[in-house]
Amino acid sequence: MPRLAGPAGERFRIGVVTATADGAIPDAEVMAGIARTRSLLAGMGHSVIDVAWPFNPGDFSRDFVALWSLGAASAVVAVDKAFGTDGVAKLEPLTRHLAGNGAAMAQADVGALMGRLAAYRDAYNASFRDHDVLFTPVLTRHAVPVGYLSPTRPPAELMADMMRLVAYTPVQNMAGAAAMSVPIMQATNGLPLGMHFAGRRGDDARLLDLAFQLEAAAPWAQRLPPIWFGNRP
To answer: For residue 168, what is the domain's CATH number?
Structure first.
């Protein structure tokens, strides 16, 4: 990957997705941040267009949770081997819940799942024929109350709310693709509001170029939130 010491100044075709897998839209603060960022990008000379997910996002979300469940099942096996049933009992209920689902998958189902995940990855990479960078929210909410994702909540309910909150970023996790959260916006309560930009695997330099450009156009280093721990710069 080439090193960047500052913005290279390339102008990008930036595709925007705001809808989640279930067709919902983020909260008003996030949508306002998306709108302001779109205007900023256009003013910088980038082309900003609306695009759609290159696959059925609901199907992808279900399959991503299934992959997560396989990972949890493997982790529980390792914990059981190292610490026995007492160790497994100390794991969070959500981990044990996912592990149960993963352990119940037949080998043929695992093979089919891996095939679908590969197809999602290929469709994601192919979508960059139409744009250079994908732009989405980071989360569907601008602020998450303490305890909202508490491990004491019922596991199935907790998992559904978690996936609804992180509706955008699992795609890059699955594809091994370059992505970044840029704290360029600010909510009305003063807290930073991240905007998410992604590319294909290996597109790190392109994204860093865009990050340099955004920081030059709208610096945020001295924009401190009302909640701050430690010495203020």
So the answer is: 3.90.1300.10
